[in-house]
């Protein structure tokens, strides 16, 4: 066996154990009996220890030195393994353990603080998490930019400077569009009525199938917060139902199917290797968002969904597909990121990006965070935050030390905008097929151009190869302007 073969055989086992760990997480959120929580924590910690020892195994260093990388795929595998290995080694074990311990506690304190609307309760724990994260960033950055060092875990190669340039071009146009939409005379009604859970779940499965989800290598369960997990031959999604809001169920399902299809569509040769997973959170989110929004909330596809909803639930008070399209895309300012429409969503993300950059750089202290949040929110949304649970305490990310994660949501939307423009250029009769509930021309295009490559190319390169141009915010803004100008008659 060559050094490369040894390295890949070792890596394959590590990847397999990583998948097992992910499946334990899935189980915990879906079917685990509540009494098992304590034992499960111990099982996860044990497996985490095994994975950590494997990821820091000194033999990896030897194999990396000797591996033959004349083949480009082998070179990319080795590059990804080396990158991970070097990053893991730069963070002292004591710091890693302190972060794991502190975030686990911080998560609990955050949940309590959110439930009781008490930021002061969370502030000391958040300060600890931030201090440790800055320490970790310094260890990783080696004199370079702290935020870049943290963001690399989620979006390899992304830099604060580049993101800032892109996002500061987005923000003024989004704020302007938001104001025009809110000033429109045209009132878009809200969906009302009750929609039986059975019908929601049945139509949700139908939607998953319509978007190409392979149930032979996947399954759909219910969870409080929808997610997808796993890769290769076992990729699972969850959804949720709310009696009066079937769109929550349908669009959660379509979103998670976008993530899941990415994992299912990756070239089989990469199974259980570093290339066998989506390349970044941003590219992942581009798949979920284009499925959900540019395809799932398009005029053509909602026409089909309107008919399917009428056959499932009978008359639900909306009589024509044009009104239904507007209802699906209704804009309303709100406090909560995860409930935001397409016009407001990225403004929520940009706010978090700017605040967490300030936190990581030491320009903003944790006790001043709520005021900074509330001021910015009022400026961009024209609304005063009424309570911390609707503001600074709403997201779990910072309690889990996920600094650098938020921008990947907007990056995903930007990438989805670029992909949508290129897709519509390549497949001119797309809407005719979407109107029949057939997404295959779109999903086949995405599989071919993006999904099958897995981790083969850097995130920006995947988008550039698929669209023929470097990613930029322009196509997303043009798409949003055109769509919401029409819906709101502005
Ligand atoms: Zn997502």
Quick summary:
It contains 20 helices and three strands. The protein has 490 residues and is mostly helical. It has two domains: 142 residues, no CATH class; 329 residues, Neurolysin, domain 3, CATH 1.10.1370.30.
Describe the structure.
There is one protein chain. With 490 residues, the chain is mostly helical. The chain folds into two domains: 3-144, no CATH class; 160-488, Neurolysin, domain 3, CATH 1.10.1370.30. Helices cover 64% and strands 2% of the residues. The chain has 20 helices and three strands. It has helices at 3-30, 37-55, 58-66, 72-90, 93-116, 119-141, 146-151, 160-182, 197-210, 246-265, 281-295, 299-313, 321-328, 342-361, 369-381, 407-426, 430-434, 440-449, 459-467, 474-488; strands at 220-222, 228-229, 236-239. It has a three-stranded mixed sheet with strand order 1-3-2. Strand 2 and strand 3 form a beta hairpin. Helix 8 packs parallel to helix 20 and helix 14 packs antiparallel against helix 15. The chain is globular. The mean pLDDT is 96. It binds zinc ion.
